[in-house]
Amino acid sequence: MTQTRAATLLAVLTALLAVLLAPAPASAASLQEVTGFGSNPGALKMYRYVPDGLPAGRPVVVALHGCTQNAAGYGTGSGWLQLADRWGFSVVLPQQQAGNNASNCFNWFQTADIQRGQGEAASVAQMVDRQLADTGGDASRVYVTGLSAGGGMTAVMMAAYPEKFAAGGVVAGLPYGCAQAAGSPYVCMYVGATQTPGQWGDRVRAARPGYTGPWPVLVAFQGSADYTVKPVNMTDLTRQWTDVHGADATADVSDTVAGYPHRVFRDPAGRPVVETYSLTGMGHGQPVDPGSGGEQCGTAGAYLLDVNLCAAYRMGRAWGLS
Asked: In what order do the strands lie in the sheet with 45-49?
């Protein structure tokens, strides 16, 4: 064997040995079920996603799936798990069970599930407490969001547990107490409820008697061609939460984002308290923008609609997660 061939062989063997002895790469984080998180009066399941190596003191996002969906599919499809890895926060993913609702919808319309200390609302609140305890998360930076029935339940959590959430993101959802105001969840979804801004705000204030704030701020997304939850519901959400925050009904910012109408309402102190996106021509679903670009996230699928705007990204930016 020549000296050159021997040197080459030695180099190959050295490289091979280095590969064999190298530590295995850390496994990627995965969705985990959490049991025993509380009395769980709403009989929900709790899943969570915690990026590997996440330090204490990081934010928490609660993401509520829509009807016919589940925690894992919504967490991935909406882009929230992708953003959790990118920006460094943990995600709580409540999951409905068929025994509660045959279509796996959160029961945003059932009085027993939308009141403080009861039903599904109390179960989600217990999940937040468990997540903060387990991860050392920042209790002042907890956010809640959801699609459709999950959007309705997002408004429930903002109203019934306002002290737990800095902000909420409602996607194709409904104002708090809408089914009760309209007399039926279907009237609420398809027609809307006849309420003044003050009446809408009173429903929120009555959900947490004696509470004077601070109240969660709202970001809402709605397809203009949504025939499952009509656009009037985002109008009523805006009326409800501007009233709660003492803001007027005139937008302080009216522009476009990714070509879609976008409005911001500020409170008397100038703080943005309600932000809305009207997705022109979009039907019922979560806006996503699949890809690897800086503003992209999510995966297209059933009720996960590629409209070149990722709602999760827009919420995260508004909430200072990025």
From this structure: 32-34, 45-49, 90-95, 60-64, 142-147, 167-171, 217-223, 272-279, 260-266, 253-257
Residue pLDDT, tens place only, 94-109: 999 999 999 999 999 9
Region 11-27: mean pLDDT is 37
pTM tops 0.70: yes
State both tokens at 92: 């709580």
148 is a catalytic site residue: yes
Q: Which of 30, 148, 254, 292 is catalytic?
A: 148
Answer yes or no: are the C-beta atoms of 297 and 289 closer than 8 Å.
Answer: yes
Phi-psi region of 139 (alpha: psi -120 to 50; beta: other; left: phi over 0): alpha
